[in-house]
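Predicting holo structure, glutamic acid bound.
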Amino acid sequence: MADSKVRVRFAPSPTGALHIGGVRTALYNYLFARQHGGEFIFRIEDTDSSRFVPGAEEYILESFRWLGIPFDEGVGFGGDHGPYRQSERRAIYKEYVRQLLENGKAYIAFDTPQELETRRKEVPNFQYDATTRGSMRNSLTLPKDEVERMIAAGEQYVVRFKVEPGEDVHVNDLIRGDVVINSSILDDKVLYKSADELPTYHLANIVDDHLMEVTHVIRGEEWLPSAPLHVLLYRAFGWEDTMPRFAHLPLLLKPDGKGKLSKRDGDRLGFPVFPLEWHDPKTGEVSSGYRESGYLPEAVLNFLALLGWNPGTDQEIMSLDEMVRLFDITKCSKAGAKFDYVKGLWFNREYILKKDNMELAPAFDKILRENGIEEPLERVAAVVGMMKMKKINFIKELWPLCDFFFIAPETYSREDKFVRKNWTETATADMTELAALLEQLDDFSVESQKAVVDRWAEETGKKPWNPWRVALVGTGKGPDMYELSAFLGKEETLRRMRKAVDTLK
Ligand code: GLU
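Done. Tokens:
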């Protein structure tokens, strides 16, 4: 075990959109696998057919493609431990259920839902376990031939795990240490249902972790209560030597208080809880996603990585490679991590600043096209580069800050404080003079304009910048004037200046 190759898995149930907490779970598994030179498996746990949602599996795969988290094997990736979709492994589970029955570790129970309901009403805190199983209809209480007759007659049954009471079960957790639970509080969990000939989550999960040679189970805290049962199942099969190490990750908490982060918090406060936009096929409801909201995948991963773990320094910005190097599963917190979505905005801003402008350009180009503007991508990238430091969280926020790059001002409103203040008595004359000066230039680069205009301004003591901005922008926003005029080019710059002079004189 100690020297076996690290193998971890992300094993979602395709019951809807992937929650952002699930993304963090997958990310931690990925980081752990990479840093140990191990393998990362993608398994679909779809044994509960009543909760199956079409499109969910594809949605989950698409989410990780967008995020840039690759799997090494599993559904959609291949590998020699398949099939990786549990609904395709029925025959395998049946064999293991048979083994447990044969070894007396499990038994068959015929109690109908109605019978169980009646029992629950009669007995406060009723639980199917060592104290009650003797008075129920199961293969421990019924004669063998009666059991066989019932099965042959097609009566529905379940297979339950026979939990021996009074034993301390130890879950050795990499984050929480030695978690001890007494088996007396556990119930005889259903492992298999004849009705759909499928195992339940618990059995399928353990059998697959074993057969897929999983060495570490890294998953959300909500699965901690199942862990003692999983330990007992491993033992019942005689697999204790290859029992994986567990790590139960801290909960993600509401941004503004106690309790688990929910989709409602996102709706209430205006942030997505899903990686991609999700169209619920049952309700038709559309939920926002990080991708469609304009987050960069790198920013999302960096933000999530620090919800429940930190590198022990105050470094916050780290690439995926750095995370792989720095991540330490044993240093994850036990306490829940507040989902500070405002911090998520900050990460996005930082990654926009870091990212190559040409890579950001397509997102802005899309918005330009929506506004009827078509420009070569290089020019779009140039505008992004000039404007992205203006405290934006999303590329889409650039449009109202940048429209004048593409659309000349039509009116120069005296209502606008900047225009009123800066188009002074001398502005008309100054702008006419500046236009004449610029017209002489063959080279309209920033440097060339700067050399001529700065000198002129210095010699004459004129301050042309603000009226020039009025002429080119129409108001008090935008980048450095030379950068703007160089971008617009000589012809457009002069045209805008003359128009301003004509209109405002
Ligand atoms: N299918 C479970 C889920 O949806 C997997 C839990 C586990 O990782 O053991 O999260």
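The mean pLDDT is 96.
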